[in-house]
């Protein structure tokens, strides 16, 4: 069996490696529009923005790994169309690649502003090249305006402030992360920005970016103007599915999959940020943009292809490094009706917050508290009853 | 057997700490550290391997 994997980030590489580890004899082709040796994305908005970062630290595997395992890399070539019936992928240079099995792992694309605002000096971070170019800008200690205070925005703000840039975050909500983590935690996280010299302009949208040949100003919806040498957009991302339109593979918010990574067409699978897998616990298709989920799904798809339906774990996990503190999250906070601090305090630099819904634990957030957070993993996985927890404590 | 942690890969998930508490700890940066200098005693080999297997970011490197 020949397998073509479209997308050579963490999900795609995990699929390739797992297939080989299982003894798959056929060809494995790993295709990506990015010309660089497959690399890890989490550092792009963190360590890789600091001077002295070596690219080889970010490689998912050393170059020899692909050769040694018979994984053919086709890099710098974008997939343009999929023929789901014949399982043929057409590339941007007109080449057609066919396989018995196709895995869709094209990830997401960063949201942008309308074209007139996308001036030189305006960045998104999704690729090695994005991160590299922003690193060079940050070395000049610019006036940096970050649009959107989510994870990418907060991580870049933190590195940029550390490197001496003048940083302002523009955020639509009252505080960044308000919907995700609730108002108390959001306020606590916001105060960490302020404490590290990052300004916040909250409850504000961006009307447009202006400048003569390069960005110079950010015009907010209330008319306020912020001077900027560099602008970073942290506006979230959209699944890279344009090329799949009309292919016959069902798309919703991402590629619709069952709980084992099968799309609606035989022989075609999807994994990682682009995929919306059926979640048997919540009873909906969920597209999760976490590194660990991508890796798990990439591995699980390889098992599904080999006839072993394993699926993925029940507890999504992500981490984010902000102002010298590592934020970690287990499970979900979606739809939570209660949150409580179970370790440390929100006013300090170390805490754990438990999120619950209808009396059951659904998620746990930790700041600089990996050891304590670990103890709640099982409770989140079991959706433990809050009442029993209180009795126990 | 020797064990190393790749600090740039470690995401502080702490699976290693639950599986092999005699081999790993988590430092104040929430990054795993190896508690044993040099050769790992034989009775800890199995749990160290299990920890490497459980690590979500493959940050534990085992040199046999």
UniProtKB/TrEMBL annotation, chain A:
The keyword Protein transport does not apply. SUPFAM superfamilies: FAD/NAD(P)-binding domain (SSF51905), FAD/NAD-linked reductases, dimerisation (C-terminal) domain (SSF55424). It comes from the Bacteria. Keywords: FAD, Flavoprotein, Oxidoreductase. Transmembrane segments: none annotated. The keyword Ribonucleoprotein does not apply. This is FAD-dependent oxidoreductase. It comes from Prauserella flavalba. The lineage of its organism: Bacteria, Bacillati, Actinomycetota, Actinomycetes, Pseudonocardiales.
From TrEMBL, chain B:
This is Ferredoxin. Its cofactor is [3Fe-4S] cluster. It comes from Prauserella flavalba. Pfam families: Fer4_15. The keyword 4Fe-4S does not apply. Residues 1-29 form the 4Fe-4S ferredoxin-type domain. The lineage of its organism: Bacteria, Bacillati, Actinomycetota, Actinomycetes, Pseudonocardiales. Keywords: 3Fe-4S, Electron transport, Iron, Iron-sulfur, Metal-binding, Transport. GO terms for molecular function: 3 iron, 4 sulfur cluster binding; electron transfer activity; iron ion binding. PROSITE patterns: 4FE4S_FER_2. Ferredoxins are iron-sulfur proteins that transfer electrons in a wide variety of metabolic reactions.
């Amino acid at each position: 069996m020949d397998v073509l994997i479209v997308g050579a980030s963490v999900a795609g590489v995990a699929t390739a490696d797992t297939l080989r580890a299982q003894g798959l004899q056929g060809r494995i082709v790993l295709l990506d529009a990015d010309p660089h040796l497959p690399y890890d994305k989490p550092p792009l908005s963190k360590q890789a923005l600091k001077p002295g970062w070596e690219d080889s630290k970010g490689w998912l595997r050393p170059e020899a790994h692909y050769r040694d395992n018979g994984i053919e890399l086709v890099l710098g070539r974008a997939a343009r169309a999929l023929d789901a019936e014949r399982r043929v992928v057409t590339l941007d240079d007109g080449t057609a690649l066919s396989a018995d099995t196709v895995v869709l792992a094209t990830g997401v694309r960063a949201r942008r502003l309308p074209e007139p605002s996308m001036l030189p000096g305006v960045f998104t971070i999704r690729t090695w090249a994005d991160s590299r170019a922003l690193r060079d800008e940050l070395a000049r200690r610019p006036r940096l305006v970050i649009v959107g205070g989510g994870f990418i925005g907060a991580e870049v703000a933190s590195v940029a402030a550390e490197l001496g840039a003048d940083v302002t975050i523009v955020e639509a909500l009252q505080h960044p992360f308000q919907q995700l983590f609730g108002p108390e935690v959001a306020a606590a996280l916001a105060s960490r920005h302020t404490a590290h010299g990052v300004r916040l302009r909250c409850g504000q949208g961006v009307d447009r970016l202006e400048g003569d040949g390069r960005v110079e100003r950010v015009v907010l919806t209330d008319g306020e103007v912020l001077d900027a040498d560099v602008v970073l957009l942290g506006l979230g991302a959209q699944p890279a599915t344009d090329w799949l339109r009309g292919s016959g593979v069902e798309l919703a918010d991402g590629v619709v999959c069952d709980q084992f990574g099968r799309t609606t067409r035989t022989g075609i699978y999807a994994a990682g940020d682009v995929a919306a897998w059926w979640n048997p616990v919540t009873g909906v298709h969920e597209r999760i943009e976490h590194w660990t989920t991508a890796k798990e799904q990439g591995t699980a798809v390889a098992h599904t292809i080999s006839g072993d339906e394993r699926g993925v774990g029940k507890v999504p996990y992500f981490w984010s490094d902000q102002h010298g503190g590592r934020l970690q999250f287990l499970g979900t906070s979606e739809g939570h009706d209660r949150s409580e601090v179970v370790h440390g305090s929100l006013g300090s630099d170390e805490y754990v917050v438990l999120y619950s819904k209808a009396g059951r634990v659904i998620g746990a957030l930790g700041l600089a508290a990996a050891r304590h957070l670990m103890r709640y993993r099982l409770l989140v996985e079991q959706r433990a009853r809050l009442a029993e927890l209180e009795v126990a404590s | 057997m020797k064990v190393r942690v790749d600090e740039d890969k470690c995401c502080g998930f702490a699976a290693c700490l639950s599986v092999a508490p005699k081999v790993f700890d988590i430092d104040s940066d929430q990054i795993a550290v190896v508690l044993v200098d040099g050769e790992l005693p034989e009775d800890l080999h199995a749990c160290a391997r299990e920890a490497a297997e459980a690590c979500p970011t493959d940050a534990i490197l085992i040199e046999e």
